[in-house]
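User: For a benchmark we're assembling, each entry needs the component sequences followed by a predicted structure for the full assembly. Here are entry 17's components. Please fill in the structure.
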Amino acid sequence: MGLISLAAAKTLASSAAFLFITVLLMAAAKRTATCIALFSAQCAIITAQILATAYLHHSGEGFLVAILVFAVKVVIIPYALLRVVKGLKTAGEVETSTTPVQSVYITAALIPLAFVVVRPYVRALAVDGQLLAAAVALVLSGAFLMVSRKKALMQVIGLVVLENGIFVAAITTTSGMPLVIEIGIFFDLLIGVLLMGVFVFRIRDTFDHVDVSKLRQLRG
Amino acid sequence: MTLWIPLLVPLLGAFAVLACRHARVAVRVALGVGAIEVAALANAVWAVHSAGVLQSGHYLRADGLTAFFLINIGLIFSLVLAYSVGYLRHIPHGRFSSARWFFALIFLLLFTMLGVYLSANLGMMWIAVETTTLVSALLVGFYNTEGAVEAGWKYLILCTVGIAFALFGTITLYLAAIRSGLPADTALDWTSLMNAAPQMSGARELIKLAFVFVAVGYGTKIGFVPMHSWLPDAHAEAPSPISAMLSAVLLNCALYALLRFDAITSRAIGSGFSHTLLLALGTLSVVVAAFLMVVQRDLKRLLAYSSIEHMGIVAIGIGLGGPLGLYGALLHTFNHSLAKALLFFTAGHIRSKFGTLRMDRIRGMARSLPWTSVALVIGSLAVVGMPPFGLFVSEFVILTAAFTQAHYLLAIVLLAAISVVFGAMLQHFQGMLCGEPQSMGARGKSLFADVAVMTTCAACLLLLGVRIPAVFTGFLHGAMAVLQ
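Assistant: Structure for entry 17:
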């Protein structure tokens, strides 16, 4: 076994653990900018995972997808989100409805839950159980970030984390979707995040705050 | 080319409209592009009708089901476009809210929705559905008021999360297809999936999982209870022509995506699982929406809940299945879109006349707005399923399907919910129509275009209620043949 394939195998084996770490750190993060940086790191781990898979399966498309993920998720989306944070000029606190300690405990409880949920599928599909559990944990913690954080921007971050989870599930169980579809999905995600950025500014301009828990005019 | 033209015309048209400096020019360009688009759609529908299936490259495809929904989108879109011209005179100008932006976005929305209908590949279809959300969120937030921004945000976030679940479902189906031996590059193609479906029963659990996620995901866009909370906000806060577009076309568009998945799932593992899920979602939607309609105060929110109710009825029709249930469900999507377009057009008139949509503040409409009142009465009679309008026929067919399949409890619950809706509508509209008219701001006479648009809606509803034309029945059977 060559050195590179060894590295690739090690990357695949350890990426799940790294993903769990980012999930926990995000739950503890107090500033929006930290969360964005963590999201970027999370996507870098996923890029490494795709690269390793592509190398082990000798798939040229895999390398293209890795480049795409790196460009869109590690660079462009975090950059755009940081620009929004700067443009808002409000204090970058995430403002949770739970305390940070509670958030970390809840997220930590989501991880074993993820392992339990995926168990029947791991056996049936013969796939890497840790990575599939990491995918489910990303989906769950993304959803948790969306409901527990008050700032509009944190909902966007929760959403992209959730999407990351679905993406990891896809690359773990299949060797990736056809390339055209993959590109389309990335394009949609990018436009979606940019549009949400525009809406965050609109919320600020019309309401003078970006606290979505105070958006309760429309009821019933 | 037949399939490319209707896709490219609105895309290029959007940019053409955006390039116009003056609002008046923009409106004319928009009408011109709209006319070309309707012709292109008619051509495509006719080509599909005579050829059966049209395929163009790997990613574009149209069959009988597509043709049926293309008629729906073409008809409603042309009505919305004609209505928008008069409506736009009242739009306040803002950064992104001008006639140019309005028409450009509505053409982009049309482009994305046609993308959903024409895609041959379930992954492509997902991408198109997600883009419809992105474009229509801008239209929901078009007025830039507090309510519009809140509704737009809620819509964008909730539907993107919902659609993300649909992506997961799509991926799971893809996985099931690959495990059943389909090659990776065609494992999302509708044709190859339908052909391979009978051999996919080995991946039973995966297909079930996929359908649950797709039903939740696309169900969010269709507005099934309990994923419906964005829908009343978005439909009520959007400009009235857009509300008509969302309610009459976009809901059907998401439903179309779900129909495709339902067909594959039913063929692969039998219809029991997916149809039970649809029956449950449909019944829940009908019942919850019916009771929420009683307590509404805003006219457009009332209409939005009515959309949830009708989508529930359609889901029940699909869930009952068989020729009768499916026939009723497809016919109901068409009828509902006509009735709901008419009602939202009426709501636009009422808003510009009274300056509010709060039903308790509107009195004496029958005297001050006689023609709009006639339209409101026709629309509401149609939407609660009274004869001689089309919705009576389709609801009757669905109920017949329920009784013949011995789903007595379901039929009784459905009848009870429809009665509650009838009572709610009667109570709300009686107050609005009767009484002494208050003093109100003057408004110019209603345009010829508006009268023509509303008359068309009412005439089509009446026609479908009295005697369904043979050509239309042909299209309906063509659509059903695809799904069975």
